From TrEMBL:
Its EC number is 1.3.99.16. It is an enzyme of class 1 (oxidoreductase). This is Isoquinoline 1-oxidoreductase alpha subunit. SUPFAM superfamilies: CO dehydrogenase ISP C-domain like.
């Protein structure tokens, strides 16, 4: 099953990101879009890129979201 996961999904699981999970589909889609844009621009993800994400998470999982995106960036 792991082989079928997108690197962002794998990073989400590895970082135990989700709490209630309500916001997670949007967070993951935003992360994938960000990583694709950064790759197309042939550069690394910056803290400013992560600061620009506006998806709201009522559970406050932002530190784990940021860590997961950084991990996924290394794997993509
Ligand atoms: S995990 Fe609960 S709103 Fe984000």
């Amino acid at each position: 099953m792991d082989a079928e996961l997108h690197p962002v999904q794998r990073a989400w699981l590895d970082n135990d990101v989700a709490q209630c999970g309500y916001c997670q589909p949007g967070q993951i889609m935003t992360a994938v879009a960000l990583l694709r844009r950064v790759a197309a621009e042939d550069r690394e993800v910056t803290e400013a890129d992560l600061d620009d994400i506006r998806n709201i998470c009522r559970c406050g999982t932002y530190p784990r979201i940021r860590a997961a995106i950084r991990d996924a960036a290394r794997d993509m």
